[in-house]
Every structure is written in C-alpha cells, then in structure tokens.
Amino acid sequence: MTWILPLPPQPFLHIAGHSELFAVRRIWCVGRNYAAHAREMGADPDREPPFFFAKPGDAIVPALADGAVTVAYPPKTTNLHHEVELVVAIGQGGSNIAREQALDHVFGYGVGLDLTRRDLQAAAKKLAQPWEMAKGFDASAPCSALLPKAQWPDKSPRIELDVNGQRRQEAGLDELIWPIADVIAYLSQFVALQPGDVIFTGTPEGVAPLVPGDVAIASVTGLPELTVRIAAAEAA
Ligand code: MN
Predict the structure, then answer these.
(1) 130-157: pLDDT as tens digits
(2) How far is the CA of 137 from the centre of ligand 1 (A)?
(3) What is the three-state SS of 6-27?
(4) Structural domains in the chain, sorted by start
(5) Distance in Å, CA 203 to ligand 1 centroid
(6) Strand blocks (E) in 97-214
(7) What is the pLDDT of residue 205?
(8) Which of 13, 138, 168, 178 has the highest local Cβ count within 10 Å?
C-alpha cells in the first residue's frame, strides 16, 4: 500500500517506568460524572445521568517524563476552563463488556485536563448545537504519563487540581456517579472499544478559567502528576 500524503503522526502517551509508548487511538469523555459539578453547570444529577462525548485522538498532549506540558491559550475563546479528570487507558477492546469484567480491559491510568472553551460550550448549549468546537480543539487534552494498572495500589484515591498554588478542584474518586467499571461497560454498548482508546472520566466541581501564565498541577493519589503551563496565544 502506498499513501498519497505522508502518514499522520501517531498520538501517544508516555508510560511511567517504561521506554515503550502507549499509542492513543480515540479520546472518549464522560460529562457530568460528579453530582456537585453537574449542579454547578445548572443540571440536576438526579434527573439527568452522565453521558459521553469525544475529542479527536490527536488532541492529546503527552506529559514529558517530569510531568510538564505547555499549552498555548487556544483561539476563539475568552473563557478557557480546566477540568481535572482521571484518565483510563484501554488495553483490550470489546463491545458490550460486562461491568464485572470491565477493569480487565484497562491498561493503566493517568490524570488529564479536559480543557474546555466554556463560552463556546454555553453558546452551543443555548442553540442545541454539538460541543465539538468547545471540547475537541487542538491540544485540548493534556495528560500525564500512564501508570500500568497493577502498579496503582491506592484504594481510596483523591483527585485534585491546584492553579498557581491555590486548590481549585478536589474530590474522592468514590464520588464518581458512574464508577470506572460502569463507564467502560456503558461506553462499550455505544462503540466497540479498541486498544489505545482513552477515557476522560469526568470532573469534580470547581471548574474555572485559566489564563496565560497560569500553572495547573493535576494529581490523582498514586498516579504520575501533570503540570500544565498555559502560554500566550499563538499569533493568528
Ligand atoms: Mn470533562
């Protein structure tokens, strides 16, 4: 087989303690998977369950070995928000996966930011339009190195985000409305999950703006940390 244009670069994530890379295929996201965040977005978590959306696979920005990435302030927004999320990396695909077997399909875990152009999202919601331009823009998914699942012993992990040394978001992963196994089981009813798919599992309350110069540190107990520096917007 020959190609008329060069093959595109393969999106990837680093793996803690390994030189091999994890090839990223697709980025799936869960919306409103923490009740307090659903409420801060004006939704009622008792009436509306979480749901899925997606970003292009090449929106991933892999953290370097020291956990640091720099992301330029994106175009077409004046209200870029952080959403810290546990990221689940799928190692074994499948459709209609039973929740009891769901964690067998996981390769490992990381922590990421679901960067969101909140102003575009609000406009899209108002007009009942899709969310892609609010969620799926270039470099909208910075993510830490992955930790292989067997190396994540913590049984009561917490998820946290500090911006410029101030705590912005914090929750226990036991507050997820759909726990990890449910997310994998439900998502696999809609699409055939594939090795390399990564799932951003939803954000706790406290989403807020980021501006150029901000330094956001995202962490989940026991997982590699992620430090995101927001740089000035690139010249148009
Ligand atoms: Mn999110």
Answers:
(1) 999 999 999 999 999 999 999 998 778 9
(2) 13
(3) CCCCCCEECECCCCCCEECCCE
(4) 12-231 (3.90.850.10)
(5) 5
(6) 106-113, 116-117, 141-143, 147-148, 158-163, 166-172, 198-200, 208-209
(7) 97
(8) 13
Distance 85 CA to ligand 1 centre (A): 7
- Ligand 1 centroid–CA 64 distance in Å is 22
The closest of 11, 31, 206, 3 to 89, measured between CA atoms, is 11
Confidence band of 16 (pLDDT split at 50, 70, 90): very high
- What is the token pair recorded at 135? 């969620």
Residue type, 165: G
State pLDDT tens for residues 33-74.
999 999 999 999 999 999 999 999 999 999 987 899 999 999
How is residue 145 written in tokens? Answer: 């190195």
**What are the structure tokens assigned to 54, written together?**
């997606």
Percent of the chain topping pLDDT 90: 95
Rounded-to-integer distance, Cα 27 and Cα 39, Å: 25
Q: How far is the CA of 28 from the centre of ligand 1 (A)?
A: 10
